[in-house]
Amino acid sequence: MAWHLSVEVDRSSATSLAGQLQDALRHRITDGVLRPGTRLPSTRRLADDLGVSRSVAVEAYEQLAAEGWLTGRHGSGTCVSERAGGTDSTAPPPAVALREPEPAAPVRWDLRTGRADPGNFPRQEWLASYRTVLAAAGREELDYPPVAGHPSLRRALADYLGRVRGVRTEAGSVMVTAGFAQGLSLLCEALPRLGIRTLAVEDPGHRSQRRFIEECGMRVVPVRVDHEGIDVGELAASGARAVLVTPAHQYPTGVVLSSARRQALVRWARESDGLVVEDDYDGEFWFDREVRPAALQELAPEHVVYAGTASKALVPGLRIGWLAVPPPLTAALDRVRSRRDLGTDGLTQCAFAELITSGLLDRHLRRVRARYRRRREAFTRAAAELLPEATLLGVSAGLHGYLQLPPTTDESALTSAALTRSVLVHGGAHHQVTPGPRPPALVIGYAHLPLAGITDALTALRDALAEQHRVVTPGARGTARRGTAPRATGSRAPI
Ligand SMILES: Cc1ncc(COP(=O)(O)O)c(C=O)c1O
């Protein structure tokens, strides 16, 4: 192989050419630019490329090998030594604000939320859609895509969202993004242009989103969530003109925004010329037989930005999300987006459009909905059996559950005890903004676990609870109400 290495030598320098070459290579190795195991060109190739005699390259390599920086393997040429020091540039980059860092040590069961099962990704269907698109791709598909999205996907999404979520929009109002993460960051830049500098968020809510919004320079106002969803009276009193909500399946509590609160939220938006950002992050996964509520956007398309993502329905790695935007925001978002990037990968967009319009996405969702329903049922059963005094809040939907625990439970001691059993789980406090009294809880992502793993993980949680001597152990059935239905509508008890 003709490996290439870019180094410069200065023929007018007092340092010998071999010395310059050694210095340059040593620096790149210690800086981590040349990583352990990196293959270097042969001395003949390097000498040719640099326009120096071969003896210069040989002398440099021999000296660096003697110092332990390089190794010469017979038949496989010269490499940077595996033992060579330097900064580890393979270390992961600093955590992106919207993603949680990986646990310090590997755990057996990672129960943090937000994980779909990557094994559910419909590889064959995706491949078929991508192949169809690639075979027919013309200049338009291979050129820079329009920043708001490829017309085929914007059209497909507008139709699909109307059909499955009741969203009232049209292709021209849909923006394709790199997941909701990008949608949120675009909104945080666009809203101040419309004079909106404060974004209200649900409390409890998504911790990383909240921090991200603050990092984007917006003020965050937490608004209490109870068993009917966000408290609209408190929102109105906060003075905020925009709010981020999860009406279909509140994150993390799992409660559904009641119809009275929906009406109140829409009234608030109309009266205050406010804007609601509806994060419909797991709207595809609804397990009860009853009809799931349509998107809130349906009630007031002129005041709601509807946001969806392929991260749960397919996989997060695709980085596909979408916003259905009311007119005053469309132009502002387009402007912000045009300054940021040149759009989302065009072929991926077209393949996703093909997946939708061919009906393959609906078929896939039907299949995985059944799988996730089985996991939800396994989780509900295991929770009832192993953690009998816990109450499962919210509806049977999505990929996680919110287990409220008896008030005597020390939530933080419990999550620590779980970690000693190799179970990583967050308590309710992790999601709470305003400190204050709140029933202890665990937020458990179950959708990526095998069925047996769900029982195994919950058994470990039961043992961690028992260790505290604060709750009953299996066999001693508690009297706490449980089930998958939301608590009585109208309850204003804090969550
Ligand atoms: C509340 C919530 N909203 C949105 C998302 C989706 O984000 P993205 O589309 O950037 O993957 C997630 C992902 O876990 C989430 O938990």
Draw up the topology in text.
Layout: H1 17-30, E1 39-40, H2 43-50, H3 54-66, E2 70-73, E3 77-80, E4 109-110, H4 123-136, H5 139-142, H6 151-165, E5 174-177, H7 179-190, E6 198-203, H8 207-215, E7 219-226, E8 229-230, H9 232-238, E9 242-245, H10 259-271, E10 275-279, E11 304-309, E12 321-324, H11 327-340, H12 346-357, H13 360-386, E13 391-392, E14 400-404, H14 411-420, E15 423-424, E16 426-427, E17 441-445, H15 451-467
Parallel strand pairs: 4-15, 6-7, 6-9, 9-10, 10-11
Antiparallel strand pairs: 1-3, 2-3, 5-12, 7-8, 11-12, 13-14, 14-17, 16-17
Helix pairs in contact: 1-3, 2-3, 4-12, 6-12, 7-11, 13-15, 14-15
Bound molecules: pyridoxal-5'-phosphate.
Describe this entry's structure for a reader.
- By secondary structure, the chain is an alpha/beta fold.
- It folds into 3 domains: about 15-80, Arc Repressor Mutant, subunit A (Orthogonal Bundle); about 110-115 and about 365-465, Aspartate Aminotransferase, domain 1 (Alpha-Beta Complex), CATH 3.90.1150.10; about 120-360, Aspartate Aminotransferase, domain 2 (3-Layer(aba) Sandwich).
- The protein contains 15 helices and 17 strands.
- It has helices spanning about 15-30, 45-50, 55-65, 125-135, 140, 150-165, 180-190, 205-215, 230-240, 260-270, 325-340, 345-355, 360-385, 410-420, 450-465; strands at about 40, 70-75, 75-80, 110, 175, 200-205, 220-225, 230, 240-245, 275-280, 305-310, 320-325, 390, 400-405, 425, 425, 440-445.
- Helix 6 packs parallel to helix 12 (about 345-355).
- The radius of gyration is 28 Å and the shape is globular.
- The relative contact order is 0.13.
- Bound molecules: pyridoxal-5'-phosphate (PLP).
- The site of pyridoxal-5'-phosphate (PLP) has 13 residues, from helix 7.
- Pyridoxal-5'-phosphate binds near residues 180, 206, 246 and 311.
